[in-house]
């Protein structure tokens, strides 16, 4: 029975964001749209929160949902995002991590708003928090959105390029756990730790270091990856017995090529996703 269900998985998107972090759609809208376009398996992977999973429709079948979260971490001074899949949302260590990031993001936002004020751009924490979800989990795109609304920049990319992107005048680094610590927390929660969009890592050789930390796989297909990167990551995963995933990193309409549709995952990636989903189901019987 399980084998038949797993083999039906062909149309997937395992990297989707909602209003619980910095997406434009509600969790219910994501699910309804996924069903409308005929996806077989999705994962909502909001930044450092699983709140979306408390807001899903009661019935999602025939769509399947793999619990997910995109967790921030740091390696040698550079941001690394780790996709946590199939975790136990009741796990104490995981919940402590999400609370820590929630509080740290607000503190960071207040400091960034202060720096923007010194640059002549007056915005408030209340304006920024209004862009966030019910828990007010604030991420930089929320600040960028307010800057756009108040006419300080013409679009969010300009806000990042000029002011709030890494190491720009109003940038403030947020406290983050190391990659190895985040992987450990994910494993404590019985989840899978997958490096998100590895093609965007500061240094390609970081992947070898992450392998030693115990990663479970790579997000092989991502809209920012070139085909040669997809091939390289596929070979790396096959060589090291890692899972391969694929997702569009969807945040909302009008976000360029990061669309809400099935991703063009090849058969190797699809087979790996089926095995990962089967393992998740077996762990949660």
CATH architecture of the domain at 2-96 and 190-283: Alpha-Beta Barrel
Question: What is the approximate shape?
Answer: globular
Compute the average pLDDT. 91
Q: Kindly report the spatial arrangement of strands forming the biggest sheet.
A: 4-5-6-7-8
The helix-and-strand class reads alpha/beta
The major pleated sheet works out as: 5 strands, mixed
Q: Classify the helix fraction into a percent range.
A: 40-55%
End-to-end separation in angstroms reads 14 Å
CATH superfamily of the domain at 2-96 and 190-283: Metal-dependent hydrolases
Strand content: 5-15%
H/E series = HEHEEEEHHHHHEHEHEH
CATH third-level topology of the domain at 2-96 and 190-283 = TIM Barrel
Beta strand count: 8
Instruction: List the total number of helices.
Output: 10
CATH level 1 name of the domain at 2-96 and 190-283: Alpha Beta
| Gyration radius from CA atoms, angstroms | 19 Å
Short précis:
The protein has 285 residues and is α/β, with parallel strands linked by helices. The chain is 41% helix and 14% strand. The mean pLDDT is 91.
Molecular structure report:
The chain is an alpha/beta fold. The protein has a domain at 2-96 and 190-283: Metal-dependent hydrolases (TIM Barrel). It has helices at 2-7, 27-36, 92-118, 125-129, 140-149, 156-164, 179-188, 206-213, 227-240, 267-283; strands at 12-16, 41-44, 64-65, 68-75, 78-85, 192-195, 217-221, 243-246. The strands form 2 sheets. It has a 5-stranded mixed β-sheet with strand order 4-5-6-7-8. Strands 1-2-3 form a 3-stranded parallel β-sheet, covered by helices on one side. It is globular and about 55 Å long. The model has no long low-confidence stretch (mean pLDDT 91).
């Amino acid at each position: 029975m399980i084998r038949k269900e797993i083999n039906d998985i062909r149309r997937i998107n395992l990297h989707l964001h909602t209003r619980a972090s910095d997406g434009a759609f509600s969790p219910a809208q994501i699910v309804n749209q996924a069903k409308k376009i005929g996806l077989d398996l999705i994962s909502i992977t909001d930044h450092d929160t699983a709140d979306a999973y408390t807001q899903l429709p009661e019935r999602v079948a025939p769509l399947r949902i793999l619990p997910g979260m995109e967790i921030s971490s740091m390696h040698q001074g550079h941001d690394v995002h780790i996709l946590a899949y199939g975790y136990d949302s009741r796990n104490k260590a995981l919940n402590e991590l999400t609370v820590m990031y929630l509080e740290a993001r607000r503190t960071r936002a207040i400091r960034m708003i202060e720096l923007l004020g010194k640059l002549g751009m007056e915005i408030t924490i209340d304006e920024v928090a209004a862009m966030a979800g019910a828990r007010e989990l604030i991420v930089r795109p929320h600040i960028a959105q307010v800057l756009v609304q108040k006419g300080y920049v013409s679009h969010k990319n300009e806000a990042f390029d000029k002011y709030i992107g890494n190491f720009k005048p109003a940038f403030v680094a947020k406290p983050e756990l190391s990659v190895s610590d985040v992987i450990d927390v994910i494993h404590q929660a019985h989840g899978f730790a997958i490096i998100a969009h590895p093609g965007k890592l500061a240094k390609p050789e970081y992947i070898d270091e992450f392998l030693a930390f115990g990663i479970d796989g790579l997000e092989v297909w991502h809209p920012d990856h070139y085909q040669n990167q997809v091939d390289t990551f596929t070979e790396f995963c096959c060589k090291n017995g890692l899972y391969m995933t694929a997702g569009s990193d969807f945040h909302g309409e009008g976000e360029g090529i990061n669309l809400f549709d099935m991703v063009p995952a090849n058969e190797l990636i699809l087979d790996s996703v089926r095995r990962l989903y089967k393992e998740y189901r077996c762990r949660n019987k």
